[in-house]
Amino acid sequence: MQTTLSEQARQLPRAEEAESILRTCVHCGFCNATCPTYQLLGDELDGPRGRIYLIKQVLEGNEVTQKTQQHLDRCLSCRNCETTCPSGVDYHNLLDIGRAVVDAAVPRSLDQRLLREGLRSIVPNPGLFKALLSSGQVFRALLPDTLRAKLPRRVYPAKQRPTARHTRQVLMLEGCVQPSLSPNTNAATARVLDRLGISVTPAREAGCCGAVDYHLDAQAAGLDRARRNIDAWWPSIEQGAEAIVQTASGCGAFIKDYGHLLSTDPAYAEKARKVSALAKDLVEVLGEEPLDQLGIHSDQRLAFHCPCTLQHAQKLGGSVEALLTRLGFNLTFVPDGHLCCGSAGTYSLTQPELSRQLRDNKLNALESGHPEVIVTANIGCQSHLDGAGRTPVRHWIELVEAALPSSNPGVSP
């Protein structure tokens, strides 16, 4: 696509990157065929091709309006278009660049500012989030439907974690909301890894991955969180930690981008590249291990929801399904498995109507095979889908851990 950036746009730190991405797009429109918002709204400007054109106009010096901002806000950042695109357009990075320029030019309404700042204050703060969640459970009956749906129907308490005792060590991002919404997910992960001779090294100083800030008009704050995590993990990396494991694919996708996002930071560029290289989704770690020694033989009927951040961002679609099948689980067929469930980080709160439509469509597809349980690999998808009050939704590792034999000679239970 022919592009001529304005003089003002050429001063942006990522101007060359934006121009290169724009020139990659051939405007074919294949991306619209798999874009969830285009399928719902049928508006060219609510599909990737239209949004790319809007960003092009902004960077060429044309007027920026609230309509421009609205069309960019409606994007889920699901990256389905990147999987579809025959030209390899790096859409999500262009979107980040465009959103930053638009948000700097177009003031948001007071209610939107309060919502976004509130989310940025609460979600990355595990202690505050847990306190508010507990209060919400007490006053559940008084809450509006939109907030009540965000409360977990059932919280599975964390089982005891094994002590770190193996030579093989990995780090694990604990997450922001997962310890409160699904506390057993990381505990189950630690127990399964322990059975395979891998110990999880605690890194309590590591906090939010930075994605919440980065995608809510505060990119600098998001990158600062990334730097703090790198500092927290670095001593263990120097001591030989073989991976940084994520059980939330949304966090994993962002951490794998640290190397790119901090590539121009002289103090962190090299460390960020190392961290991104070590970042592994849980399925990548387990997929390389001798799972037969776990002794799992389950025929439970499951439907797997593959999060967009797993299949489109990390390119790991089919990996969890293959692993669960290998362990004997009975997976149902899920039509349109490439489509987003509508969670998309905080999207379900900033775009509730579109998010709800996408959730209901996704649940209809997931339930079409009549599974006992729906499993997924991202806490945002898990809580969003489960909030509909239909088929229970869990993280897949919890079902794997639950199927472990109660005792295994020589290995801790």
Short structural description:
The protein has about 425 residues and is α/β, with parallel strands linked by helices.
Query: What is the gyration radius calculated from CA atoms?
Result: 21 Å
> In percent, how much strand structure appears in the residues?
5-15%
CATH architecture of the domain at 294-402: 3-Layer(aba) Sandwich
- By oligomeric state, this entry counts as single chain
Question: Mind explaining what this structure looks like?
Answer:
The structure is a single chain. This protein is α/β, with parallel strands linked by helices. Helices cover 48% and strands 7% of the residues. The strands form 2 sheets. A 4-stranded parallel beta sheet has the order 2-1-3-4. Strand 7 (373-376), helix 22 and strand 8 (393-395) form a beta-alpha-beta unit. The radius of gyration is 21 Å and the shape is globular. Residues 407-413 have low confidence and may be disordered.
